[in-house]
Design a protein that fits this description.
The chain is α+β, with helices and mostly antiparallel strands. 22% of the residues lie in helices and 32% in strands. The model has no long low-confidence stretch (mean pLDDT 90).
Length: 78
């Protein structure tokens, strides 16, 4: 994640191989991104680059859109 973006919270799925970060940008807007990791790869989390371009006025709006866009968040109550 670029230094101009600060993660506020992170939600991980029950399998531990996907997560969603809610973040704030330097300009005060909010967003989210989904990440994945492979247990056999020790490199860590990789962004899936699906959602980070979207801009929201509040963290709550970003979270609501994440829950509606990322299927496992509804299943895991992320």
């Amino acid at each position: 994640m670029p230094a101009s973006i600060k993660a506020l919270t992170s939600f991980e799925n029950s399998a531990g191989d996907h997560c969603v970060d809610i973040f704030v940008r330097a300009d005060g807007t909010f967003g989210f991104e989904e990440y994945r990791r492979d247990p056999e790869d020790m490199s860590g989390w990789f962004p899936l680059h699906r959602y980070s371009h979207q801009v929201f006025a509040t963290a709550e709006d970003a979270l609501a859109q994440a829950k509606s866009s990322v299927a496992w968040m509804g299943l895991d109550d992320g």
